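Posting for a labmate who doesn't have an account.
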Amino acid sequence: MEIKTISVTYQRKFNLGDYESLEIGCSLWGQIDPAEDAEGATQFLFEQAKASVKEAAIPVIKESAYQMNKAKIYKQSAKNQAHDELENF
């Protein structure tokens, strides 16, 4: 099978608290030569779409007290888990 066009869609939904959510998505299409690596091109488009969604979401997330609190808890949890792993070494 000869692949000429590939497309990738990446979406994320963020809970903003107070029964509000935000869904951000990005779809990218690419034309490739049959000799090119379709899997590599797909991975490249996926990473580009993911970066675009992240860039678009950052300002909204920074304004959301719920998401900032969630990020703070996640960072503390990761730090505590790393500390526990070192103690169990």
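Reply:
Got it, the structure tokens are right above this. The CA atoms of residues 61 and 67 lie 6 Å apart.
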